[in-house]
Inverse folding.
């Protein structure tokens, strides 16, 4: 958030119909989180639920042990939030896991293992208070530096929850 403006993404039904914008905070009518979207899939009565909902239900059942919140982002999240069909048979399921506290590498590997055999490919992004990163890259990194997306841009780092990273990323800003 910058001042009274919130960054938003605007999109149409086609992948090419995307734009970044700023919206006044008082214009926001509803906030739907990825965790809210998981609940929508869990409670739908549609017996022929979409591959995305079937996959989300499966993950929700497998991830009951996980203390971090999360849910779908990307085109599946957009479709569930708006009711506008944007996914295609080739769409993957983008999942956001909010890891405010450290997530062990073995837990990351366990999360990834549960995605095998689902109706669609799954891509999981972890978001910490400091940065975002690919869960697959983290799970396979063995402590090496990985790409971290920060508010100041991408950097290579190895401690995704380290407060020193915040100062590194802010100093990278021009």
């Amino acid at each position: 958030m910058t001042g009274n403006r919130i960054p938003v993404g605007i999109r149409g039904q086609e992948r090419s119909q995307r734009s970044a914008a700023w919206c006044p905070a008082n214009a926001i009518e509803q906030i739907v989180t990825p965790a809210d979207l998981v609940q929508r899939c869990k409670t739908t009565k549609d017996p022929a639920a979409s591959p995305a909902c079937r996959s989300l239900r499966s993950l929700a059942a497998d991830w009951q042990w996980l203390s971090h919140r999360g849910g779908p982002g990307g085109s599946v999240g957009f479709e569930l939030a708006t009711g506008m069909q944007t996914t295609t048979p080739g769409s993957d399921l983008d999942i956001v896991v909010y890891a405010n506290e450290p997530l062990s590498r073995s837990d990351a590997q366990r999360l990834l293992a549960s995605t095998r055999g689902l109706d669609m490919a799954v891509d999981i992004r972890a978001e910490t208070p400091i940065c975002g990163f690919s869960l697959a890259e983290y799970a396979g990194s063995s402590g090496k530096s990985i790409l971290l997306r920060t508010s100041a841009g991408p950097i290579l780092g190895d401690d995704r929850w380290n407060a020193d990273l915040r100062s590194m990323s802010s100093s990278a800003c021009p």
User: Anything to note?
Assistant: Residues 51-62 form the longest helix (12 residues). The helical segments are 34-43, 51-62, 74-82, 105-113, 135-139, 163-171.
